[in-house]
Amino acid sequence: MTDTRGQQPPYETYNGPLPGERAGAQQPGGPYHPPQAYGAAAPGGGGTAGGQTGAVRRPRTGARTTPRTRKARLRVAKADPWSVMKVSFLLSIALGICTVVAAAVLWMVMDAMGVFSTVGGTISEATGSNESNGFDLQSFLSLPRVLMFTSVIAVIDVVLMTALATLGAFIYNLSAGFVGGVELTLAEDE
Prior knowledge:
The chain has helices at residues 81-113, 115-127, 137-140, 143-179, and strands spanning 71-76, 182-187. By secondary structure, it is mainly alpha-helical. It has a two-stranded antiparallel ribbon with strand order 1-2. The longest helix has 37 residues, at 143-179. The model has no long low-confidence stretch (mean pLDDT 79).
């Protein structure tokens, strides 16, 4: 194989220090002092480094004093249906537990205030006759019956929320394929 580039100029050699070496001779016993910018005084006293006399760094008049906030624009291209299902299942279980606890606390507060006895007495007077006492609201809205009804509603809520969130992830993935997904702008907090 022959060289078809023709005559080439000779290479110049570099005689300076290699990247790992220091340019100046250093005193073996003293500490290393890096070169100073903007004419700071040399460690030994006397003049200034870099041959500048009296150069002082002054801030620019229009310089920013607040740190710059970094921002990134991201796009949610796909939501994994399996992870959406797991997260929505756990969140709906937590919501179901909160619902049952809230119903129990609300029932206890209303019972302590005498709401059931007052309203129950009014309803039994309105629905009662000489032979019967009428409708007994206090036995119908007892705590075990209210908690059973709330638990059934919470279980149905867990199943429906999990299914709807998973279906929502599938629908989002289909629509994100057409329009590209939701764009988010994230900013770094200082």
